Amino acid sequence: MDFLLECIGFLPEDDPESLAELALREGEAAPWRGDPDRHRRLDLGGGLELRADREEGQDFWTVLPHYQVPHRLRVAVEQLQLVPDSPFDALLTGWACPPPPVEVTDAPGAYRLTTWLSDARRLPRSLPAGHVLAVSVAGFALDVTYVGPNDGVRDQAILERERGAFVAPLGAGDAPGGCCDVSLRIREIRHVRNRVTGRAVDVLVCDAPDRPLTLFTSPFQLEQDGFQAPRPGWRIEGTFLFTGHVSGGLRGPRREAGRAFG
């Protein structure tokens, strides 16, 4: 998964172990992740983060990209899977943008989404189906299959049915968790800079129902696969790994007082 780091301004030849050492030396404890000597976050600027984790019993670091998305997405829980060998992570699958009321049990949302949540320690052991969480998530490219004009989309019938946006979790039983196939129109591209490498990073803000989805791609992989750099108004298609954190929807003083998030 080292190539995911290319999505946030690192080079293909950058060594993940060296980046983990940098996070250990210059970063800070990652929130809700346990031992601060084993779970680190390094602020890269502009909302970009490098996360480094080494679970108990492991002799290697897992280094992944994160992004602090500035808005929240409502997701009605379909399944929340805690991970025994990674107790600080949870895999959420549900319906994004469910209709009101806030708590729903039988109405689907605009589209299904699956994502990893990095703050599983905040969650109860189980949540009822239909419980609505607010999450802040971003997608990092595993495989891009199309970047180009919006009218070049591969399956126009799907997009017409899905109102111009298509997001769906990978369906195979052995598919990696947190991954979705997407076909989305790029609304705008924001530019931030990785302060460690000095490289510019494109933040793709894409049209989706209710709230935009934020995607990242590797410029090296795009060039290798013969794609031009993304542009506003163009469409992007491919498979993305979604990660993020819970930003609302858990019971607390405000909920006890009868006030809902959002």
Overview of this structure, please?
The protein is mainly β and 262 residues long. The protein is built from four helices and 13 strands. The strands form two sheets. Strands 5, 6, 7, 8, 9, 10, 11, 12 and 13 form a nine-stranded mixed beta sheet that branches. A four-stranded antiparallel beta sheet has the order 1-2-3-4, with helices on one face. 36% of the residues are buried. The C terminus is likely disordered.
Number of helices: 4
Query: What structural class should be given to the helix and strand makeup?
Result: mainly beta
Give the low-pLDDT segments.
253-262
Q: What do the pLDDT scores average to?
A: 86
**What general form does the structure show?**
globular
Describe the biggest sheet? 9 strands, mixed
Radius of gyration, Cα only, in angstroms? 18 Å
Distance between the termini: 34 Å
Q: Helical proportion?
A: 10-25%
**What is the H/E order?**
HEEEEEEEEHEEEEHEH
Number of strands: 13
Beta-strand percentage? 35-45%
